[in-house]
Write a structure and sequence with these properties.
- This is Multifunctional fusion protein.
- Its EC number is 2.5.1.19, 2.7.4.25.
- It is an enzyme of class 2 (transferase).
- By secondary structure, the chain is α/β, with parallel strands linked by helices.
- Helices cover 36% and strands 20% of the residues.
- It has a five-stranded parallel beta sheet with strand order 27-31-26-32-33. Strands 3-16-18-17 form a four-stranded mixed beta sheet.
- Strand 5 and strand 6 form a beta hairpin.
- The mean pLDDT is 95.
- The structure holds adenosine-5'-diphosphate (ADP) and deoxycytidine diphosphate.
- Adenosine-5'-diphosphate binds next to helix 13, helix 21 and helix 23.
- The site of adenosine-5'-diphosphate has 15 residues, from helix 13, helix 21 and helix 23.
Amino acid sequence: MYSTHFLDLPPLRSAGGSVTLPGSKSISNRVLLLAALSAGETTLHDLLDSDDTRVMLAALETLGCGIERLGGHSVKVRGLAGALPVKAAYLFLGNAGTAMRPLTAALALLAAQQGGKFELRGIARMHERPIGDLVDGLRQLGCPVDYLGNDGYPPLRLGTGETAALQLDAPIRVRGNVSSQFLTALLLALPLVASQDIQIEVVGELISKPYIEITLKLLARFGVTVKREGWQRFIIPAGSRYTSPGSLHVEGDASSASYFVALGAIAESEQGITIQGVGLDSIQGDIRFVEAAQAMGAVVTGSANSLQIRRGAWPLKAIDLDCNHIPDAAMTLAVMALYADGTTTLRNIESWRVKETDRIAAMACELRKLGASVEEGQDYIKVTPPAADGWRAASIHTYDDHRVAMCFSLAAFNPVRLPLRIEDPKCVAKTFPDYFEALFSVVQADAEDIPVICVDGPTASGKGTLASQLAARLGYELLDSGALYRVTAHAALQAGLTLEAGDEAAIAELARALPVSFDGDRVLLSGQDVTDAIRSETGGMNASKVSVLPAVRAALVELQHGFRRLPGLVADGRDMGTVIFPEAPLKVFLNASAEQRAVRRHKQLISKGVSARLEDLLADLKERDLRDTTRKSAPLLPAQDALPLDNSELGIEESVQLVLSWWEGRRPFQGA
Ligand SMILES: Nc1ncnc2c1ncn2[C@@H]1O[C@H](COP(=O)(O)OP(=O)(O)O)[C@@H](O)[C@H]1O
Ligand SMILES: Nc1ccn([C@H]2C[C@H](O)[C@@H](COP(=O)(O)OP(=O)(O)O)O2)c(=O)n1
């Protein structure tokens, strides 16, 4: 997951390959609760691992439910069989509507039935998301529920600690047009108290019916068959009891699939995009996003558990669509609209206003930043794409809303090759923590569009420290080119070669097929950890020796170019800016006095428990400087367009901030 403040996406050109989707959030949280309420043990496979499922799991554990993490995405849940071993608890539910609503219903009923008392809270946004209709329904049933903040919103107190008589005779009336999660919550909870038939009556048109279908299908898997009269009346039969199905697989998230369906529709591709984990047999309503994407031009084929997508019509065709049946995935259509041949209208989306953020306002604001013309109404949005010269490089604010972050990433395919900034990319953790990794695994940018920041300089100037900090702050790849020379020297010595010109051809051959790999800080040669051996002072001196040999340098070029991967690269060494990435958009030449550098190295070695004499280090360092700067092939020199940075008087953080400010100055996002 990218936990950086922002993630800059270079302009993307094409796509192709296969992605496996994480488990559906709606299904994961429903089956977790159902398994917890059932009699018996349930093993759940392919469960989504995200913020929302984590708060659900934590809540169930607090309530006394046995949760065993089996590794991977599997969890074994020991059900409570409708009993409450813990009668009073405080539950924090983050911003997870799929935890807040059903737990409110289940715990309100169980608290009344068995004498419990529970407090449910979330983050500030959760306290702005309405829950009044559900509370009204629970109060009709005789459950004591108190608002602890504003009326109509969490936080809530459920129960008083005493039992309360439930009134199950009269039908429970719920409004259908606010959130289908209220009805889902009641459907999940009422079987716990079904000593008689219980009726739910929906008042008005029911929105998001597909989510109710998921609920009904999952209830059936756990042994409860709800009778339904149209979408107006639901009857939970007397004597309903949850029983574990033993084990259950969670299908991939169909809403998450929408980004890759859209990608297949937008990107040029030879092989197309394949999505694994969700297919045409999905029980999730958002699978019908596929039809909307097809209407815009996507060519989609599929099987029960996978989808294949290719670009069809181009530009995409503008559509006018009632999106009530695909409220979440419809956000993806709003971004696809940027590539359409006219104005796209998405209607009947009022529920967007009470989601993670006011999604109509958010989408309108961010689409406008990109140059689109947008009209928004209380329950619709109309998007007209930018003119060819109207696209702008935008910094997309994401409102702590995973779907805003994910769908806007598709704007990186803009025809004018502008980069795109996604703020707070970690908000995708709600449903798809590795979304950007998955995206980068199937999209391609032109190499020259992938930014490289070069940090060159002499030994102990702080290159490695600065480069790794920059990479961490920007979410970029890191190339420690010195390590490649160090490993080459190590491999050469192991092969019985000298590090002199006489063995140049043999060392170059070794370097060309160097079996080197990086695992965090560790450097592996043929899978063997050689970090400590190559990081020694002798290792540095040996690297300096082989680095003089032109054939060795040439042999390592391709390997170094291979590090230029999405979303960007920070490269440290001696010739990053002069030879390897001469067209890099930012080059820094780092330096500090030889004495300062020797002191730094001395401290570094002492802190690692390696004894060293300052005078020896200074002499070695000067010897290395001399060899590195005077060699014929790619000597250590600042590139003409490098910015010099003498950090003799600067701390590490100050240097990092300075270079980040230089980088920001070269990005096109200001004022976006
Ligand atoms: N700006 C700085 N001020 C003080 N010490 C620094 C600075 N940058 C790096 N150092 C320290 O100097 C030592 C050498 O830094 P390193 O990044 O390994 O240098 P290089 O990669 O250039 O050889 C490290 O112990 C590091 O913490
Ligand atoms: N791009 C590079 C990187 C390193 N080298 C050579 C020259 C250096 O003295 C050695 C070791 O480099 P490294 O960056 O690991 O060494 P320091 O951390 O600066 O001490 O490799 C090079 O010639 N070109």
